[in-house]
## 1
Amino acid sequence: MSLISRVFLVAILSLTGLAARADINMPVGVTPISKEVFGLHMLIFWICCVIGVLVFGVMFYSMFKHRKSKGAVAADFHESTVVEIIWTAVPLVILIAMAIPAAKTLIAMEDTSDAEVTVKITGYQWKWHYEYLDSGINYYSSLDAEHNAARQVGSGIDVGQFENYLKEVDNPLVLPVGKKVRFLHTSADVIHSWWVPDLAVKKDAIPGFINENWALIEEPGTYRGKCTELCGRDHGFMPVVVEALPADEYDAWVAENAPVEEVQVTESASATAVASVDDDREWNMEELVAAGEGVYVTHCASCHQADGAGLAGAFPAITGSAIATGDHAAHIDIVYAGKTGTAMAAFADRLSNSDMAAVLTYQRNALGNSVGDVIQPSAIKALR
Amino acid sequence: MKTGPHMLLAGKLTMLSLAMFAFGYVVMPPLYNIICDITGLNGRTNSAAVAAPDGTVISDRTITVEFVSVINSSAAWSFKPVVQTMEVVPGKTYTTNYIAKNLSSGPAVGQAVPSVAPSSAAKYFNKIECFCFTKQEFAGRAEKEMPLIFFVEPDLPRSIDTITLSYTYFNTGEEPENLSDS
Amino acid sequence: MSTAAAGHHDHDDHDHGPAKGWTRWLYTTNHKDIGTLYLLFALVMFFIGGGMALIIRAELFQPGLQLVDPLFFNSMTTMHALVMIFGVVMPAFVGLANWMIPMMIGGPDMALPRLNNWSFWIMPFAFLLLLSTLFMEGGGPAGGWTLYAPLSLQGGNSFAFVIFSIHFMGISSVMGSINIVATIFNMRAPGMSLMQMPLFVWTWLITAYLLIAVIPVLAGAVTMLLTDRFFGTSFFNAAGGGDPVMYQHIFWFFGHPEVYILILPAFGIISSIIPTFARKPLFGYASMVYATASIAFLSFIVWAHHMFTVGMPLAGEMFFMFATMMISVPTGVKVFNWIATMWRGSMTFETPMLFAIGFLVMFTIGGLSGLMLAITPADIQYHDTYFVVAHFHYVLVPGAIYSIMAATYYWMPKWTGNMYDEKWGKIHFWVSTVFLNVLFFPMHFVGLAGMPRRIPDYNLQFADWNAVATIGAFGFGFSQLIFVWVIYKCIKGGEKATDEVWEGADGLEWTVPSPAPYHTFEKPPAQYS
């Protein structure tokens, strides 16, 4: 074996070894589709490598041999129809050969029929909402609170302590293993994109429109992904976590979490906004402010900033704002119903009565404001 | 060198660029909507009522129609289908309802936007009557039950066994003109 | 850059040389002056856009947010792209076209000199407007350079300035293109047929048509954004019967031809340089012209490959996959032709040739990753990750930017009359190339491993390669100071260049003296008639 072919072989082997490393290559994934996609990816990668070796090989040979300093004299040919036809036709054949398996995978990806579980995924700035159409379970899923605190500019928290930094959520999406799951994607504000590399599922969530795709997870485990369509300030901070459970554990999870039928019909849009006994009692200021701080950090601080100063021109300040220091009705209304035409969303179906009362009271009595009054959960309950 | 031929050519090229602007600004949006209507490209269904089927062609199979609701962040509404799913025979006409409630204290105007998944099913899903054809005006905290009458065309491709109909409810931001209706 | 050497040709009714004082640059209608202005403008913007890139890379040096607010980070990625595309690559190509096309086709000037002056002087104002939004309330545009609705509509009132600045840039580009087409059709030396034109002229002719066809479409799209944001229309608002996906279709109908606008003139430059230093005529001239034309045509029917995740019908996805793969055929033909030009030549490796070869190697790498991206099922995994970032930076930086640098080294002796410093030119090439690969190659890895683009902070698994990329970015950024230094030295003095400059040079621009006199070819060259 010549030296060149030995070097070549070593290069190929080390590349093959590297291809299996998760930190530099696409994951193989845990669904039939993700495995096919990985196969296609590696196939086209090797084809590109071969083309690259051939093209660069000829080029560097020529650069080495045909240099003036080596006494090369320029030839004078500048045309050859035969050669031109060959190097037009050969790539064409390679492409067609490549397109056939790709088309097969594409057809399989689009076939959403016979799904056993359907989950509607709604993108919000900047969290996900999951709704199981079959069981009625629905909840929000947002970045883990500790990670959220650590990622603030100048937080002083060492992000190295989190193993899955920015890839951890409060409520992961729970899915069964071995069942075909259909995803419906949509959005409540701007375009998002729901991506889990291990499932090879990436689909845009577009306001007003619904998209679908599917996955059949073959192994239990936790699979992590991200929003991949730029969706505003906290685009980088809305992770996706999927927890795949064996079928029996999944069924147990559904049984435990399925909402009571009656609540679903009479209560407003979301089970997270479910009424609780807490709503009827009288809360004191300290309780509300303490609870409100957590709600503020999770839901408000992204735009209005942790210190309430807002971002000039983009997001108004809470500190000293006419609404947050004015009368109750207007303050409640803007948080409850949002402000059309701005980034201010309606929180009616996102916050429970006590959370909304707490955050309102917090805004009035912290962040540099000191109105000194409280808004009770019962006042919010009365609106519903 | 005379400037005559230059100006002539420059004039033609300016016309070309103006024509391309018109193509982008005036022609493309309606063209896109026409293409979407014909092909169901973006999963949108008919935006005006169609006539009911004459009932002569009835399919021999049933498909599942799922009803889904999304509330856009611009709106403080509660918005739900009365039933989650229906078993439907293509060619027959069905009726269902959605319930919307304005959660805010002031009046508001809402608009439902329909979308169908898979998008290839959109052109087979026909609405005879739909609340999405018009805007709805709500007094503060008012609630409405809104009807939807539809049928699925019998020549729906065999590969489709489930159609998901999603409505996203938006606040149009307009002032209600005619609240006596509600 | 063009020193005030009086022309030694016959003069009829023209001035004898440039006017005195700074107003020369304001009122000039001379194609060489305007070319110089465009090139200097592009150089300044290159450092502004590069500074933004360094802010991005500095924030991404390690996980956690250390330096900037995420919203400012987003406006940096947005502005970096707008500045580099509209403020660097396009003006630089127009500058080269101004300088070289009249000299290459044996014409005395551009066809419409006064229009030429306007189309340049709009640019600084457009960019002043764009950059000033960074200092306005609400900050600069932060929805990505694609300005996707509805996100871009959430911004502050400064959004109107962004739209107007895009309109101004567009008007400037279209006027420049009209001028170039008119020059090429009407100002050629008598007897020079289209198929005798140098390839740089050919690629610019096709590029100019692309610009005239698609820039107005962009203008239409952003006008719709403007009226949606401020005047209550709902082109892209689903509630009013619009569709945000339609914006993407219109945008990429402009955007994909735009990608070729950024690379076709580069093909022309490389096709001039490689034959010179291989001392051998370009292989397959006619097939190069046809390949350029087919790339331009195909660029109009592949736009939706930027949108494979928005939910298209299967047939649409298939069509756009096949059409996209098809583009690699004429592009491949070009690469093969360049290699065949080198084959059995008599090569030397001066700085322009080094940059041309750097272009050839790294543009091919970018082209191959482009082929991978064309495979729709795989694209669904690649889409909007750093793999895409790596891909388009490989075709744009060692592609478009390297071709501009190659052109600068190649023609600078003709512009200034002095040879540049060969040693520092070569150092510039090697330092840039090493750092460029340190910067962009690891992006393939983090992209495949799952890092989305346009995020200011990331998981620890991506930390090592991001640190490497940031080191590469600062190395690449600062090594461009060498480029400025070489240009400065070359303008100031140096070894006198001969008229032919390069031993193997071929073309009309090498028949005029070095430095090129203020007016050239007032009498057309004789060899074509």
Note: Strands of chain B lie at 63-71, 77-81, 85-88, 93-102, 108-117, 125-130, 136-138, 143-152, 162-171.
## 2
Amino acid sequence: MTEQEVDPRFPDPGDTPVGEVPGPDAEPELPTRPGILRSILRRRSTVVAAVFILLLIVVALAAPLLAPYDPTEQDLLIRLQGPSGAHWLGTDDYGRDALSRLIYGSRVSLWAGLQATGVALILGLPLGVLAGFYGRWLNVLLTRIMDAMMSTPSLVLAITIVAVLGGGITNAMLAIGLVMTPRFFRVARAGTMDVRHETYIEASIALGCSTWRTAVRHILPNVLPPIVLVISVSLGTAVSAEASLSFLGLGVVEPTPSWGSMLKTASSNMSLAPYLVWPPGIMIFLTVLAFTYLGDGVRRALTRSRSGRQD
Amino acid sequence: MLRYAGRRLLAAIPLLFVVPLLVFILIDRAPGDQAVVLAGENPTPERIASIREQLGLDDPLIVRYFDWVVHAIRGDLGTSLLSDQRVIDLLLRRMATTMSLVLVAMVMAVLVGAVLAILSAMRPGGFFDRFINWAASVAIAIPAFWFGLVLASLFAVTYQIFPPFGYQPMSEGFGTWLSYLVLPGIALGLLPAAEVALQLRSALGQVLKTDYVLNAEAKGLSRPTIVMKHGLKNAAIPVITVLGFRVAEVLAGSVTIEIVYNMPGLGQLAVDSVQNRDIPVLLGFVLFSTIVVVLVNLLVDISYGYFNPKVRS
């Protein structure tokens, strides 16, 4: 298992890296939304990004099977050894296998991304729809709060929250989630305000639909396409933020491996083991890039399918 | 114009009070007795009592907050729990390092970003244009602190072109000062440079479609003259806004870059204060960051009003 196998093997026309995902010519699997999947799969960059993220999820789930060594097992006799047949990516300052730590690190990164994005989504989406739907003082109040949060440097806010709540990955991700909440709020609010005075919304209210039903059945579908993009970009931001916080020693607790804490190790052993710098950074970079491309592809597809619909 | 600037300033001031209040509320809600946590391992009752006294933990939240605000307005941000130094002195001493880093990064970002955007706009849709567009969108995904590590590893450790770590003030000579800031400046400036390149290129694209540019072309002006004289001036405005928003993020990014390059700046102070739960220092850092962001946003707003009189009303 090398770095290259985690890699999506970027565009290789002879190879079909699509795997189980149906190719562009396959029948669409979602009969209610014909064409969305086809539309998503039409862009090669989106497919490559999706395959990379799928591979990453598989690696994270199967980490105990894939990792050649225990990621926390120390062997001081083989400290800071360069890449070799036994340790493909070398060993760190405690003699731990860098490849195994990289593989296990994907768990922390993905889980951290999900946590932070989940927090931001759960807070930002309902508040945004509420502010856009209800309007008046609630809209003004919530918008002011979110603007204030947005103009505070995100890492500073996250550092403050970690300082107060204590370190550890869950607190760190709660912090990042809070910092990202205004993004979801803004998009949800704007989407809601766009359709707030459409005839079908007024009709739904006039027909006696409850506010809840109107919001969930009629407003939410309009807000979702841009939210999908925000989710994807936020997953990337969160992976990057977790790495920053863990690098600063404010994220994961040693000896748990994370890409950020691996870079911390690499930073303090730079002259003796320059090879340690590359793999975790490349993984963070590719993961952030993949989430960005995936989000962009899905957004394009959703916008296209919506505008193409007759109703 | 002055009245407009004043109004913007008044609207921005509440933020200076709200952000520290949030920190106070967070500290108040944090689990455990703060005094015991702060006193470290095996604390004596006297130590706990003195921290209690110093932080005024026996007073209600609102009293503590107003006490802090009143002192802060007079320039007194309390003393560090760790070093017993005045917080304001700590901040001022380290400010020069962080500001130098942010300055070099932003200057580099504007220069590199602008040059790339202008070169791209010379031949829209050409190879260089498409390449820069692609490279800039990819560069945005690179974590700044990792880029800093890679640069340090390559150009300071392996090939010793630049001094590896630390910082020298400008009093040691401009060249020395700059040599310590080149690598961290590039690392921190990569993201804003990519954004300036993308934004300015897209703004130039819009401007170059207008009638007066067509007119200039008809007059027989060369492409470089059109881009530089007619395009750049009008395309610069949206880019200023983007830069303004970026300053907050660059300031935040300087925290990790300072750690990578072991620079004695505000970021290192902040991380130390978090690790030691040195609340007065942390509050000082938060206040300082908020002031910078508020000031920059204000400048952006004012520049908006200056360029576009319609905004003023």
Note: The longest helix of chain A spans residues 98-134.
